[in-house]
Fold:
Amino acid sequence: MTTTLAPPAVVLDAVSRTYRSRAGSVAALRAVSHAFVAGTFTAVMGPSGSGKSTLLQIAAGLDRPTTGRVSIAGTDLAGLGETALTRFRRTAMAFVFQSYNLLDALSAFDNVALPVRLAGLRVEPAAVLDALDRVGLRDLARRRPPELSGGQQQRVAIARALYARSDSQPSVLFADEPTGALDRSTGRDVLRLLRALADGGQTVVMVTHDPLAASYADETLFLADGQVVGRLRHADAATIAQRMSELE
Ligand code: ADP
Ligand code: MG
Structure:
């Protein structure tokens, strides 16, 4: 068997982010370096205020580092102006948040199609159904969010994130606490889905507080005080919880 090194989807090179305000400055990230390998699922954990959301925002090109560099799928974000960065983000990145932000009046199908419709692009019904198929909801395409469980609603939000990338699969799917509003069993459906997407080649980066959620990832990154203080690969929930308790 030959070993091939998968190319990194996202590389952070000595990334620092300092927020300045009248109250003083906060070093939210301090010289963080990490390569998120393409086609893998990474969980980011750490105490509140440790820099998780800042890391996600910077890795996704939603915010720029104060110092250091970020590249996504081989593109150095520092070389992109705001317009090019926005366009790049639209094609290369997908986002899922704790709140699904679905419209209750629209069917699952129409929720998935909405961003593309709003962007003034042509909606291909077959592609919308494909996206719903990827999250296991093709048969429920006509249901509205109030007729779906929380886990199913989050899966619709994931289908929408995947479909909004138009023809190509996004380089990275970023998720900030995607199971934060779900109970254990519906959360598990979403985690299994993220795991299956990664097994199918999708790069997934997820912020979570939950060791069980992180146990679905290939690698868990631990942040404390703006720095990466640990990494675990293929760890179980108990091992991850133990490491977390040492940080809190
Ligand atoms: P986490 O997601 O791990 O809770 P954040 O990345 O949100 O952490 O925040 C890291 C640190 O940066 C915290 O001390 C937070 O108060 C600070 N911070 C985050 N966003 C801002 C901002 N827009 N302005 C000032 N400080 C911020
Ligand atoms: Mg946060």
Q: What stands out?
A: The two ends are 42 Å apart (CA to CA). Strands lie at 8-21, 24-37, 41-45, 67-72, 75-76, 93-97, 172-176, 203-207, 219-224, 227-233.
